[in-house]
Amino acid sequence: MRLGLVIDLDTCVGCHACATACKEWNTSSITAPLTDYEPYGKEPSGVWFNRVRHYEVGDYPNNKTINFPMSCMHCENAECVTVCPTGASYKRPEDGIVLIDQDKCMGCNYCSWACPYGARELDRASGTMKKCTLCVDRIYDQALPEEERQPACVLACPAHARLFGDLDDPDSVTSRAVRDRGGYPLMPELNYNPTNQYLPPRTRPAIPTSDLPRGSLARKVKEWVNRVIER
Amino acid sequence: MNPSLAVIFLTLFSGAGFGLMAMVAVVNDFAIDGALSPLRTAILVALALLLVTMGMVSSTAHLANPKNAWRAFTRWRTSWLAREGVFAVLFYPLAIAYLGWVFFMNNDRDSVALLLGNVTALVGLITIFCQGMIYACLRTIRQWHTPLVPANFYALGLATGMTVLTTSRLLAHRHDLAMVSIACSLLVAAAVMKAIYYFWIGAPSGTTLQTATGFTGGRVRLLDQGHTFGTFLTREFSNCISPRRALNFKVAVYVVGFLAPIAILLAATHAAIGLAVLLAPVLAFIGIGLERYLFFVEAKHVVNLYHGRMPGPLPQMHPALRAGAKDTVPAGKRRLVPSYDER
């Protein structure tokens, strides 16, 4: 089993709901708290597992704003785990989730150096590294109704831009989406083999601007009147 | 990368300590300039232990949670950092045994002393290799992901170690020409290897914001990095240096770290300069410390791409959002890396 997220860049509206839902759940979850530094101060900052960035792709008029949420990719080839000297970082063999044992971490930052996606953040208050847990304490919780056994970010997304599932199962909703929409991993050349995939925006015909209908006679008269009468 | 003093001191001092131990073994093996006296061997091994300890102690300042530092030896199967810890700890009993044997038997030429000395030196050299591989194994930082990194750590560690050893002999008597020539050759070799590294890291990386976001067909620029103020990622990875400043620092590395020690060592063999010869190792440490600072601050982690901060000195923000950002390259000067607008 290889659990992961598939993020739809076509529908993501960049509202940061996934990031705030993540913060809300995980600040009282297994690696709690996600410390905030000076939350009401001049320069608030803090630990987040999920960050949304915004890019412009292409040049006008063929440009598009892309909202780009990023969290841990739960890589197959997770070098953050292999470089960890203490054994605090580990990848669960049963579902591929990469986790950090907070009781073993010595806060050397080395795993964050090995991660190309910026998924790991040091909590200065606890002195340990923290990262996305794929809400491991939600997705297996038998006390929750089955439809809620999903990561908090996936449940919160108002645009359904986040899919959660087993990417090893060819019939899962995630694998289907990757297959149908041409999902891709980030920085494939580094060969980390990330589990999370991104779905590219759908291509749509360009909105025509040069061949607008000429309009009725009444409209032409109105435009002419507008031009000759100074307001 | 954040040029943390703790890691700069760790690699600088422990590298010099292991290099010193290795050169003590070499000098005694081949009886270079009549070998070292047992007392001088003992003093130099103690100095090597002191340097290694200084490095190790300063490295713990870099840990956010040092109470778990003892666990850092457990994952030696996969982690170069753990391997470095294991070999550094293995160095201590061997070096102390060698020191004790040489000091109490007052003999550094018998087979036990030679065997202990060489094994200790070998463990020290393996530790330098592990230390270099900590950086060289990271595919996320192109400036580090090169075999030149452990090679440079070797060259610089041996050169500083030999500079310390030669200085200690020059303080006593002057005509150690073989030792001075070895020290100068090692300094020159280290300088040349570092120059190869500096040329090497000038090449562009294959990873770009295009491959980082998957939009390889068009230009990608950052509109908003999604956080109002600094994060762990910006603090740890966003340190950078302007090409001009880096060039000035490199000149300083070569003048202070390599040329000045060579000149002082040569002067000490031909004239009585007394305690001034101590300047050679001091300047070597300052110059190579500066080199280590550059090693960190010039390393660019790929996560900077997501913040629109790579390559080039200025964040690659959309021009409309860059209001007030001052360019670090003065007007009229041609920049090494073209700015966002020029590209």
Nutshell version of this structure?
The complex is a heterodimer of chains A (231) and B (343). With 231 residues, chain A is an alpha+beta fold.
Provide the β-strand percentage band of chain A: 15-25%
Shape of chain A: elongated
Radius of gyration of chain B: 23 Å
Principal-axis shape of chain B? globular
CATH class of chain B: Mainly Alpha
Task: Round the Cα radius of gyration of chain A to an integer and report it.
Answer: 23 Å
CATH topology of chain A: Alpha-Beta Plaits
Describe what you observe in this structure.
- The complex is a heterodimer of chains A (231) and B (343).
- Chain A has 231 residues and is α+β, with helices and mostly antiparallel strands.
- Chain A has a 3-stranded mixed β-sheet. A two-stranded antiparallel ribbon of chain A has the order 2-3. A two-stranded antiparallel ribbon of chain A has the order 4-5.
- The longest helix of chain A has 12 residues.
- The termini of chain A are far apart.
- Chain B has one domain: Formate dehydrogenase/DMSO reductase fold (Up-down Bundle).
- In chain B, helix 3 runs antiparallel to helix 4, helix 5 runs antiparallel to helix 6 and helix 9 runs antiparallel to helix 10.
- The chains are: A alpha+beta (231), B mainly alpha (343).
- Strand 4 of chain A pairs antiparallel with strand 1 of chain B.
How are the SSEs ordered, and which strands pair?
The complex is a heterodimer of chains A (231) and B (343).
Chain A: E1 3-8, H1 17-26, E2 36-37, E3 45-46, E4 51-57, E5 64-70, H2 79-83, E6 89-91, E7 98-100, H3 110-114, E8 121-123, E9 128-130, H4 136-139, H5 152-156, E10 162-166, H6 173-181, E11 197-199, H7 217-228
Parallel strand pairs in A: 1-11
Antiparallel strand pairs in A: 1-10, 2-3, 4-5, 6-7, 8-9
Chain B: H1 5-29, H2 38-60, H3 80-105, H4 111-136, H5 148-172, H6 177-200, H7 209-213, E1 220-224, H8 232-237, H9 243-270, H10 279-297
